[in-house]
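Hi F.,

I've been meaning to write this up properly since the lab meeting, where we talked about keeping a consistent format for the predictions we share between groups. The idea is simple: the sequence comes first, exactly as it goes in, then the C-alpha cells exactly as they come out, then a line or two of notes. No screenshots and no reformatting. I'm using this chain as the first example so we have something concrete to point to.
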Amino acid sequence: MSIPTLLPNHLGGQWVTGSGAGTPLFDPVLGTELVRVSSAGLDLAAGFRFAREQGGSALRALSYGQRAGLLGAIGKVLQAHRDAYYEIATANSGTTARDSAVDIDGGIFTLGYYAKQGEALGEARVLLDGERIRMGKDPAFQTQHILQPTQGLALFINAFNFPSWGLWEKAAPALLSGVPVIVKPATATAWLTQRMVQDVVDAGILPPGALSVVCGSSAGLMDQLQPFDVVSFTGSAETARLIRSHPAVAERSVRCNIEADSLNAALLDPDATADSEAFNLLVNEVVREMTVKSGQKCTAIRRVFVPRALYDAAAQAIAAKLARTTVGNPRSEAVRMGSLVSTEQKANVLEGIARLRAEAEVLFDGSGQPLVDADAATSACVAPTLLGSRAPAQARLLHEVEVFGPVATLMAYDGLAQAVELIRRGEGSLVCSLYSANPAFIAEAALALGSAHGRVHAISPDVAASQTGHGNVMPMSLHGGPGRAGGGEELGGLRALGFYHRRSAVQAGVDALDALAASAVALKL
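Output, unedited:
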C-alpha cells in the first residue's frame, strides 16, 4: 500500500515539506485517504519576513495597472488547470460539478473582475481619497487624504467550504493593492488551495514571496504578525474570538477582518399568495440554497419567514422540491447534491438538527431516501431537512444555532414589524433576501433590515431571470455583515482595497499637492 503524498508548503520563496507524518485528508464519500498536510517544523518567522520584505517590496514597485496584469495572468493559469481542480474538489470536498463551479469558477471570475478594475487605475501608485480641503481662509495651504499600500503582509485563515473562492476573493484585492499574501486553508479541504498556489507559483507570474501557502496546523501564525500586517479570518465565531484577543490584534493593532457564521433569512411579502410569482421565487431559492454545496455556504438561507396564512403551503411546496433532490456520490450523473466535507462535519450537522428539533417540527426529512452510490454508514452525506415553527417569537435556539448543512427552518409571522423583529434576532447576518412584486415593500423592508445585514437581495418577478442568487457573493457587492456575522467587510468593488491600504492626510501647499497627485489616481467608488 502506497503512502499518501505529503503536500509541500510554499514559504520564504521556496517549497518546503512539513515534518512528521502529517494530517490525512479524506474523500468524504468513499472514506479513502487522499493526501496529507503538515506545517510542523516550518521557519515561520523567516517565511513571514521574506514575504513582508521581498514579496511586498516587489509588488509595491509596480503600479496598480501592472499588478492588475498579474491578476489577469493568474486567471489564465487557473483556467488552464481547471479540470484538475474539479477532480480535486470532487475527491476532497464531495461536491458535484455544479457545486464545484461555484467555488472554482467563482474564484477565477473574481480574479478577472479585479484585473479589469485595477487596469482602470493605470500607472498610479497612490490613491487619492476625496477632494482637497482648505485648512483656512488662505487657499495656499490644503489637506489631501491619500491611501497607500500597507507595508506588511496579509494572512488569510480560511474556511473549509470554499478552498478556491475563499482564497482568490481575498487575494485579488490584496495583490492588486501591492500586499503579499500568506494563506492558511482549512485543513480538511486544503488540497485545492495548495494546488492552485502551486500552479501559480510554478508559472512564475508573481515575484518571490508575493504568494505563500501553509497547510496543516495554524499554530504560531498569528504570533508572526507585525503592526502593519493584516489578518482576514473566515470561520466560526469561537475561533474569531481567539483571533481578536490575540496580542497581535489586541496589543500590536494588527488590522483584523472577520467573517463568522450567521443566520441568514428570506422574507416573503405579507401580501403574497400561494399562486403568486413571489411565492414561487421564494420556494425555488430556498431549495437551491439548502442544496447547493450541501448547504455549506456562509450565505445560505437558514430562516425562512412567510405570512402565517402561507405557512402550510410553503412547507408543502418546499418539501415537494426537496423530495426530488438525489443525494450521494457526486461522480454519479444522477446525483444532484453531494456530501458534506467530512464525517466530523456530518456529526456536527446531525447534532445541530437534534438541537433545533427541540423548538421546531420536522416538515421534511430526506434521510429515509436511499443514497446514490454511497454508503450511509461511512460517507459524509446528509439529506436535506426542513424544519418549521408556527411560533418563532417564542423560540430561542432557532435564532441562535446555525446548522452548517442542508437545513433550513420555515417560520410563520404576523405582519412586517414582527418579521423584521424576528429577523433581527439573528444579531447580524451576511445577507437577507426579499420576495415581492411590490417595489414599495422592497424599499421599506430593505431600509428596515439593511443595518442588520451586509447585503439585502431583493428578488422580484421583473429580475427573476437576471438576479444572481441569495447566496452568490458577487465581487462588485459588499460581502460581510455586522454583529454575529463578524463585523467585517470584503469585496464591494474597489472598496475592498481599503483594508490593504493606510489612509493619511498630507497637509501642504498646492504645488506640493500637485506634485503628489502626479503619481496618484482618485479612488472612485
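Notes:
The mean pLDDT is 96.
The CA atoms of residues 56 and 180 lie 5 Å apart.

If this format works for you, I'll send the rest the same way.

G.
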